[in-house]
Amino acid sequence: MSEPLRVAAIQFSPVQGEPEANIARLEALTIEAVRQGARLIVHPEMATTGYCWYDRNEIAPFVEPIPGPTTDRFARIAAEHDCYIVAGLPEIAPATGVFYNSAALIGPDGVIGVYRKTHSFIAEPAWAKDGDLGFPVWETPIGRIGILICMDVVYFETARLLAAQGADIICLLTNWVGDGAPAASWISRALENGVYVVASDRSDEERGAKFCGGSCVIAPDGTVLAERATGDGIVTAEIDLDRIERPARFAERRPANYHSLTRNSHLWNPESYHNRYGIRPLPPGTQSRVAVGQFTPVPGDTDANLAMIAELASGASGAELLVLPELAVTGPVFSAEEAGRLAESPPGEIVEALQSIAANAGLTLVAGLIERGYDGRLFNSAVVVDDSGLLTIARKLHLTADDRVWAAEGDLGLVTVDLALGRVGLLIGHDAFVPESARILAIEGADLIAVPALSDWPPHVAVGGDPDRFNLWRQRARENKSYLAVANGAAPYSGRSGVCGPDPEDYPELEVTLPDDEPGVVWLDIDTASPDPRYPTNLVRLKTTLGMRQPIWYDALVRP
User: Fold this and answer.
1) pLDDT for residue 505
2) Nearest CA to 337 among 306, 370, 359, 383?
3) What is the mean pLDDT of residues 205-225?
4) Strand order across the 321-323 sheet
5) Rounded CA gap, 490 and 510, in Å?
6) Residues designated catalytic
7) CATH of the domain spanning 5-251
């Protein structure tokens, strides 16, 4: 059993171009954190110099090697107080003269290792090279430590790579702008990987860039243990490495299905990329209405469930697509015998009933059921049905403990289907929690990801006055620049079914939700055709962040 460990995030606003004053203040804050019991102290990104540099020439007087004068100063503190410090500074590689946005892990014996920011924000390419050291994890007496810098954490792959190497703690150095902090992506990376995140930010303004503070310590279950909204200061929390949930998170991964992660499909215009050889071009796209239906399916009562589906479909108000919950037709099951009694080999009577409902309502349905495969295995599946019949079927890939009582692991990979509204990807329940799943569908060109679910987990995480600071559905839509339509069960499940847009931070109107305890329908008008005012094409087609991924580092994500 490990001893509790106190960690500290230093929130600090440097003065641009005043390294001596910045370092002196950081030294004082670091020593104060040690006096408060911290053994791991994390500084913000570029805390020694400031962040908003116009070009290489402007920052050149302030770069230094690692080890170097600044890390030597922090090493003296680490040695004197038997602590570990993560310091953010601009680095020069002496052999090449190349500059990097870097962080040094410093212990009582000096510099332990260096991380160089790998996924650049808009500011770095003016002066810094993308990091070339990969994603190291360092074994220390206080735990296994990995580092990310700001924009890195927007990409789930980065934290996943650290967790895959056994990281207990991810130190996040940041100058965060945008959606407020503690940010949903910070919480997501802790929760997805079952690790601690110590995030250090600044809360001021530099050259018009406004940084939002929110330095914090996040537990493996997504709980924000401590945070500071604004102003310079120290955030401390006691962590327990015995709470690490990484092994469970990694046991549910299915790497054989993830090889798309290692390919950079969005270097090229997506319309051209997906139309190579004319084999499967993206649908033209259009303005359309997507609805989700929320209700709690009755276990074993297909007639009652189909009646509810028909009622929801009739109330979908002109929607082209209606997504319904996981196991919407059969309800949840709790034994293999019960599942076998309710199973169908589509197309069969259930699909015929759904086809009739779709025809009467003039829409396409996505609905969950129990599928019997041709070899007799049972699957937790979802069908896509319109007035012509069965269009496609998906099988749940990432099973929960309840699923494993009766269901076999899906063997169809991650499925997309082309409809008039665009390319639609399918995830079932827990599939959406595993971040690889939605990313692969986005790489495959999904404009919309439909998620039939019966879920009371993961939780929405409230921070400050925001009850949905972490909302899994919003996070998946945002980080993959796709619409996401989730139909969840009402109470006793967590409900909150809805449709999220690809950029709810800038366009909050692109999101609708239902309360947690009421059956009903909610819809959103989506657009998969019109150009975004800020870009030359539609945002869900362009998927800007996918083109900035760094797949050269991602091979570990597909290793068994």
Assistant:
1) 65
2) 370
3) 96
4) 389-395, 378-386, 364-372, 321-323, 287-294, 520-527
5) 22
6) 45, 117, 150
7) 3.60.110.10
